[in-house]
Structure formats: C-alpha cells, structure tokens
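Step 1: inspect the first sequence and its tokens.
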Amino acid sequence: MKPMSYVVYREEEFFVSQRFNVDDSSFGETREAAVANLKAAVACI
C-alpha cells in the first residue's frame, strides 16, 4: 500500500480520519479503528 497522509480528530463520540487533499474519510470508536477503517476504504478504491 502506498503511504498516505491523513488527520484524525474527535467529533462527538467518534474519531474521524480524513485524507489530505482527497475527499475520503472514515470513523471509529477509537483512533486505531478510524485509521483502520480509512485504510480499508482506500484499499477498495
């Protein structure tokens, strides 16, 4: 998998992970889950 830049931030009870310069994002109950969900979503593209 190619390296990607992303940011993780808290939005109410969830953590949101969002890639820079691309309209991709995902969320999870923990930081790790949010990042894992983002990586899984990108792998499907």
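Step 2: inspect the second sequence and its tokens, then contrast the two.
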Amino acid sequence: MQIWRSAGWPCRDAIEIDLLAAGLVSLRATPEGHETVHLTQAGFQWLALARQQNRRALSAHDRLAEKVAVHLMDAGRVVWRELSLRARVEAEVDGVQKVPCEPMPYPKALWPEEEAAIERKASWRMARPDVFSVRNTSVQAYLQPVVHEVKASRADLLSDLRHVAKRQSYQWLCCECYYVFPAGVAGLEEIPPEFGVWLLHGTLEDGRFEMARPARHAPCELPFAVWLALAKATPMRLEVDEPAQASLDNEVGA
C-alpha cells in the first residue's frame, strides 16, 4: 500500500527485495538513470485480496468503530483508535460512585498533606476509548476533544453502562462523549443524560448515522500526559479509495 501511494521511490529494504522476487513489484529505470518501484498486475491482485480478507476478519464492533472514525475524518477531525489514556476518576464514597456532569476540577496541592487528601478523593485508571478525536486546529481552546464509545450489541452496551468509573474516565478526557450503536439496541432513556447518542440505521456497509441526542458539553483542557500519548500515537488516515460516508441527519457539531 505504501508503494501504491508513493511516487515509486525505492526504499532499498528487505521487504522490497521480497516483493521484487515474488513479482509483486517491478523496478523501472528512466533514461536519466533514476529507478522507481511500481506494483505489477499480480501486486494489484494480491493487494485487493488482502484488503478483502482484512475487512472480513473485522468484527462487527471494529467495523462500526471504523465507520465512525471515517465519518469524523470526513468532517475534518483528527482521529485516533485504540488509545490507552490515563484518566482521573472519582473514588468511591460510601461504596457509591457519582457521574459528574462536567470534568472534575482537581486543585494543585501546596503541601504534602493536602496532596494526600486530594488523592483520597480521586483515583487513576486506564481509559481505552473506541474513537477519540479533536478538531484540526492549532488553537487549543478550539480542539473540542470528543469520545465515541461503540457498542455493536445490547449486551455490550449494558455491560459498559454498569461501570461508572469507566464512564467517568471517558468524561475526564473530553468535552463531549457519545455512545454509538445500531438503532433498536437501546432506548435513549437507558443512556445517562450527559452522554450523547448516535444511531446507525441500516447495515454496517451502507447504513447512515443519526445523532439521536447531543451530548452535554463541558469545557475540557487536555492534560500534558494525554498530549504526550497523542504525540506518540499515529492518527488514522483516510484510504485513497475509501467511499464517501453517509452524513448525519442532524449536525453533530464536529
């Protein structure tokens, strides 16, 4: 795929040797003596077959998450999938956890005993949002980080809703958080009111998204640790041959 996207400049690596030996690419020389690498007909057939196999291997959850990610990229957002981000959540108080309506402020301690008191009220956990995105902007105040949690089945959704701390970690990382699932999996009244809802109408291949309910917006500034994790990760890229995705029935505010 990298050779297909490039201008044909050779890499001179071991993989290129294997591709040349297998007849999947060919080496061409210009009259000026410059060499370029190009896919052969056999290479095109192999690449198309590999893409079909990869698509069949994806689970319904992964295919739905990919569809959400492509839609967000079409809207101009920078998108990551399968991130592991450290998030702060409220600790249990008398065995009960509460979901905040907006990101929780954590003051900076001046003395060690104050820091210990703050830590008793909160804890850290690893959050793994299905789709994390920000606006494509150089102004931090306009980033609007958003989390989309994808649920392909009712059982998966209900399991997620039972974990309060997991939902808190999503909220700590973003301004808005959405659940995405096929229409008919759950009613809006089953989803906590601070979370937005995207519904998929139709199949995973040609279905369309509808924003059934907007998420409750809360200001959020990404901590340095999250910035560092994003810098280490690679955002998704649109495939050059990816078909245009169906747009939302309603403006999603992305």
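Step 3: confirm your contrast with the notes below.
The chain has two domains: 2-54, 59-232. The CA atoms of residues 70 and 242 lie 9 Å apart.
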